[in-house]
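Minutes, project check-in

Agenda point 3 was the complex the collaborators sent over. CS summarized: two entities, 1328 residues total, and the question is how they sit relative to each other. Sequences were read into the notes so everyone works from the same version.
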Amino acid sequence: MVLAQASLQLNLMPLPASVQPGAGQWIIDSSFSVAMTGVQDPMLSAAVDKFVSQLSRETGIPFKRTAAQHGAALTIHAEHKSESTLELGEDESYELTVNPSDAQLTAPNPLGALHGLQTFLQLVEPTPTGFAVPVVTIKDAPRFPWRGMLIDVCRHYMPMDVLRRNVDGMAAVKMNVLHLHLSDNEGFRIESKKFPKLQEDGSNGSYYTQSEMHEFIAYAHDRGIRVVPEFDVPGHSRSWLVGYPELASGSGPYSLVSTVDPVMDPTQEATYKFLDKFIGEMAGLFPDAYFHIGGDEVNGAQWNANPKIQSFIHSHGMKNNQDLQAYFNQRLQKIVSKHHKTMIGWDEVLHPDLPKSILVQSWRGQQSLAAAAKQGYSGLLSYGYYLDLIWPASRHYAVDPLSGDAAALTPEEKSRILGGESCMWAELVTPESIDSRIWPRNAAIAERLWSPQEVQDVGSMYRRLSEVSWHLELVGLTHRSAPTEMLHRMFGSDDIASLRTLADVLEPVKDYARAESIKLPADNSVPLNHLVDAVSPESDVARDFRDLVQSYIQSGYKDHDAVEKIRALLTKWSVNDAKLHPQLEQSFLLKEVEPLSQDLSAVSAAGLAALDYLDKSETSPDAWRTLQLSLMTSAKTPKAEMLLIIVDPVQQLVDASGHVGRTP
Amino acid sequence: MVLAQASLQLNLMPLPASVQPGAGQWIIDSSFSVAMTGVQDPMLSAAVDKFVSQLSRETGIPFKRTAAQHGAALTIHAEHKSESTLELGEDESYELTVNPSDAQLTAPNPLGALHGLQTFLQLVEPTPTGFAVPVVTIKDAPRFPWRGMLIDVCRHYMPMDVLRRNVDGMAAVKMNVLHLHLSDNEGFRIESKKFPKLQEDGSNGSYYTQSEMHEFIAYAHDRGIRVVPEFDVPGHSRSWLVGYPELASGSGPYSLVSTVDPVMDPTQEATYKFLDKFIGEMAGLFPDAYFHIGGDEVNGAQWNANPKIQSFIHSHGMKNNQDLQAYFNQRLQKIVSKHHKTMIGWDEVLHPDLPKSILVQSWRGQQSLAAAAKQGYSGLLSYGYYLDLIWPASRHYAVDPLSGDAAALTPEEKSRILGGESCMWAELVTPESIDSRIWPRNAAIAERLWSPQEVQDVGSMYRRLSEVSWHLELVGLTHRSAPTEMLHRMFGSDDIASLRTLADVLEPVKDYARAESIKLPADNSVPLNHLVDAVSPESDVARDFRDLVQSYIQSGYKDHDAVEKIRALLTKWSVNDAKLHPQLEQSFLLKEVEPLSQDLSAVSAAGLAALDYLDKSETSPDAWRTLQLSLMTSAKTPKAEMLLIIVDPVQQLVDASGHVGRTP
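CS then shared the predicted structure for the full assembly.
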């Protein structure tokens, strides 16, 4: 794909559908101005103001938005006005043409123009002659119309400023749906005026008022982002039942600090009356056409234990709890539909009795998604996009909504797969650490959902990801600055250099390993202030080191540049514990890190010794290697919920030292 | 001073008046709670909420403010309620007693309790057994009642979030007055409803609305900080005259982008009518008892050129322009007083005809301040506290309001010196860089104004300053994070390690050198996006290096620990240019830095060679030293508005190599 190859050179993420590079560049200096032609649109006008102010942040040049003069301008033209509510499937395309002294951005809709402005911002770079944008023609449109992120605000409440800065980050990488997981066992996070005990008894005081939410939805709208609310029923509903125990299938009382996993009672009419009133209220607050009712992981215990419910199942000719949930979902779907919304639910809601208009969000995988599409349901993929699992960006990047079983679908069935959503489940994140769990990895998922399916070069992705990462801090995110402060705090000292050296080669354990090991209390009130909370989900330093070792080995130990860099890193690491160890002892939070610090230095010393053998083309003694490999095995064991990520490449060096030509 | 010695061990800034250390510590964990006894006070209650939330930031433990239980608590007791307006000279004292399992904070007024809470926050540190506060008894009260900072929002407008985070920083170091320089030639920054052309024509659209300011004053009040407005008249007033040229002494029209330095016409009654109405309006908006009228640097050109004004001078028996300004100030003082405010002005307002009730703020020095005090005027020192001069913290720290001429005053005269104010004049700072120009150095000035005069240990100050610095980022300031983003931006790349190495040993040129060299346009609209804008006013790395060199030389070249560290630094620097140089060429903003990068590596190489001579106790050849010293001389020349700060200590090494015993 020739065009994508050209675009790989640019620092764009997501990559555009088509890039036609030209020669030269347009210098962006104080004379820069913006001209708008086409429709007058308040959303676009606000976006241009934000663009100008972000351009100032990206350059340090104090731009004011002024009318274009003397032709030196970015001309923005949108054909149609935007609707007051953003809609799924709106034409989001745009064309951006940069010439040596001006540029044109055209789009059918303001939404496309917003995306084009983000592309323009990413193109601005310092060059030998000034900040500049390369001469280029970009024709761009998203591959999927639904490119979302879920933020769970229940397990840990996230103040509005967290949501706002993340919406800014989403807009920067052209995501367009923020899915707010607003109720779960651990908290009910939005004010209901009709049922005030929901937030009063169910939130510990941490919830969004309706006026805050109203303002926030407008904020997101101005950035081209739809806000889809999720109220998870009938399971995951303990927080509802603290104030309204009569909705439950078992007897209360319920409390936020208990571990009970109750379920609403789908056999009583009162439940539907409550939900009708509640959904009616929320349908007024959230303008989006979609309404998520959760529906996942219904724990059957209360249903099994309630004779009235069991007799309802039998008397209605149902076979089991799944049928009962389907009955509940059918009733719920009618209510949602009555309030002019389209229902979304997780995989489990899928049941032939539900109308094809609903949307299924799959946390189970492409197989489940494909099955739904075959039955005529529309779907979204979230399997593979769970940010809380602390996977490397490359692993998320490899997940495609139309791969696996979905690849075999007919074009019509494929068109039912609307896109996907990354998910930030919040058991183990706080307002302080959440950005570092979302970003920059989320940008790789954003690219998967926006860019052509063929865009798959992992090396290019990582190169561009590291560039987009610091740009995202300029947008207001704190994924880099906040962890630095956390290191200072746990160290209790200003000089964190040696702690940083260690932290830079550690990663948190993966999947649910940490959640299982720390045994979260029901209200998640454990301090998340350990080193594992401050280290990056993915170690850039370790990845670079691994690449160096690869290229050294592949060069037949001849890549001198690589070996020098490898030696410098191993040397730094090998002496780090001597400096760091006494300091670790001073902080109760860091004592647990001592074995990792020892491992880093010991493993690095082994790596240096292996390099010496390789340098001299001398085969290392078997006994020595055996000893080192047992050190490696022990160093690979998770400690303090973290993994030392450089062990594998060092082990490769040790292995390699057993295969070089000459025996000593 | 025994007590101060003990307190030097703690990470407190400013140091308390009295510290009595005890044995042991109180562990701060999730069981921490706060109990309030004494008066119910809304300001104190809000402060306790903020304290609890800041304690969470300082520990990562999710505290909720809950009533004390089981006696494990910080008990806070304030005797009297706070007034709705903060007042100068209020008793700000407090006593804090920390025991092994609880603590008591008592204060006559809520304001003292606020200070005590800040002290408590600074005492919290990670220890081997948990976050803890040492057992200690602190009795504290400020040395001066007026501990202020001026922020100039005219030369560069500072949005409210900049002011808010700086108020938070001030509160953390117990400053209590924010002086807002609200009008100057370059901008009029507050909405007047009576004279709307002031902000409409005089601000380029960047000004505070009255409702924003009202809200901000409440924000500052809740943090124990008074807001004193300054409207600089009759000079420094071009921004007024854009909309109201009839107030000027010369004919208009005036514009924000011209360099004219006009003066109001003090001979026409219309000027006083205008000021009366305006000051009346502002006196209602700003509740503080003080009102600053500027009065500095009146440029006589327009008065000299206006025959009507000259004839007024003669007909009223005045000798010169100074007498005319005194007449203006007298008239103004009556207006300010009529609106129930006490007038403040800069040195120049001092004139025997003015009542003793006014307050004089001295930018000229202790001599001027002492002269005023002798005449019965109260005063504030700002001379020596100009943050925009980019001095090291130690230089500000050495400036005492009661030193120099003021030291010879009688106790009564001394009592008229109420304190001082640091000044952040904003010609060369933006919202992005201002924090890094204020902090952490401002904390050293805060200590000078709060702590006993005997607190003068510079080594201790720097040790504590670096600790308070990262705490201030947890408070919300950006003095460390923002410059990092600026480096990324000018480099256009994620990997800034080698640029950082260089930046860490550079400082901006001092005093007014930069302002003079860049020739600011009248509206200051130049990009402040160069390396000089991102390097710290004071290089910690260079100061540490200088100390290492000192101790190595003083040890008779025997301090092996020092010499190893010196060699490591010099080695790193000596190879830095090879890495950095090709990257500098890629950015127009960094080309100017190339000579500094070369100098760093060349000077470091000379330092390494000198170390070799010293190591071998071999006298270096005279010719070699001559050559190196000419390199040093050239390396000391400012380049790109910056100074390479490591040259002097390297030169000491080179010099020393000429004096060691043995000739080769």
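Noted in discussion: Chain B touches chain A through 49 residues (CB under 8 Å).
Follow-up: revisit at the next meeting once the mutant set is ready.
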